[in-house]
Amino acid sequence: MPEYDHTRRFMDTVHFKTADRVPLWEFGYLDTTILRWEQEGLPPNSDLKEFFGLDSTRYFPPDYFFNILGPVPAFEEKTLEETDSCRIYIDSEGIMKKQFKGVRDVSMPHFMKYPVSSQDDWKFFKKRLDPYCPERYPADWENIKAAWSKHDNPLTVFVGSFYGLLRNWIGVENFSIMFYENPVLVEEMIDYLTDFFINATTRALEEVRFDHAHFWEDMAYKTGPLLSPEMVRKFMLPGYKKVIGHLRKYGIDVFSVDCDGNIDELIPIWLEAGINGMLPCEVAAGMDVVKMRKEYGRDIWIVGGIDKRALAQDRKAIDGEIYAKVPFMLEKGGYIPSVDHEVPHDISFFNYMYYLEQLKKCIMTG
What we know:
By secondary structure, the protein is an alpha/beta fold. It is 42% helix and 12% strand. It has helices at residues 6-14, 31-40, 48-52, 119-125, 141-148, 164-170, 172-181, 183-207, 229-248, 267-273, 289-296, 308-311, 315-332, 349-365; strands at 65-66, 78-82, 86-90, 96-100, 110-113, 156-160, 212-216, 255-258, 277-279, 301-303, 335-336. α11 links the parallel β9 and β10. The radius of gyration is 21 Å and the shape is globular. The mean pLDDT is 95.
C-alpha cells in the first residue's frame, strides 16, 4: 500500500474511506492570538504548522488554493482620510471602508460605500470580470503548475460565490432590498457570475488536476440565513448546479462551502446542488456536527465544529468539547476536526497546546 501523503489522507477522509488518520488542520489564527502566545511561550516567528505538528494551519493550504475570481484590473487602493484613530480607504474591490486603528485584527472594517447600486454600476463593474482577461492568470502560472506537480497537499480551486461576492459589492441591506425591487438585475448578475466562474477557471481545470472545488458564501448569521431559503433556491440553485456540472466533467467530486453562522436551512439546498462539504460549523450559531452527521449521514463531509469558547475556559471544558464530538465523528467518518473559525486571542497558549494534545490523542487512538 502506498505511503500516505496529505492529498490521499484528505481524499480518503472526505470519501468516508479508512485513512491512516484524519488530516490535522486548523481554520486559522488571529494575529493578536499569535502575539499573545509569543508572550506566553510560543517562540517568536515560529512556523506554526511545524511547531504544532499540523498538516495545515489554514483549512485549505494557501499554497494549494487557486483563486482568480476578483476584479481585474483591481481597483486602485487609496487612502481618502486618515486620523489617529481610523483610516478611510478604497480597497481593491472598489469598496469604501473605515478601519479603526489598533483593532484591525479583532474588528471588521465599517463598509461605507459600495461599487454597485444600479444597472449602470453593474455594467461598469462587470468590465473587471472578464473571464478571458490575460492578466487574470498569474504571470508565473507555468512555474506554479510545475510546483504543483510535486505537491503532497490537496489542490483546491475556488469556483465562486453567489451571495458573498455580491454582498461585498452591493452591501447586505442594499442587496436584500434588490431581490424585491429589482429581481431582474439580481438574476442578471447571478447568471453573469455563473458563466464567469465557469469560463475563468476552465483553463486551470484543463491544465491542472484539482482534487477539490470550494465555494465561499458567508450568508448566514447566528440564527439563520441572511436570505430566505426560497430565494436561495430560486436565484442561486441553478447557478450552483451549472458550475458543479461543469466541474464534474474534470473529474472533481469533492465540493465544499465555507459559510459562517447557522446554515441548517441552507444545507438541503447545497446538497441538492451537489455541494457535499460544509465548514466551519460555528457552535455559537447553533451548529452541531454530531447532529449534522446523524441527520445527513454520509451525504456530507464536515470540517470544524469545535467550540472556540470551550478552549478559552479550562481543561475540563476542553476535554468535554473534544470527547463529546470527536470520537463519534471519527467513527462515522467524513470529518476533519478543527476550531470552528480562526482561533481568537482569548484562548491561552497553554489551553491551545492542551487542546492539541488531547485532539491528537483522540485522533491517533480513534
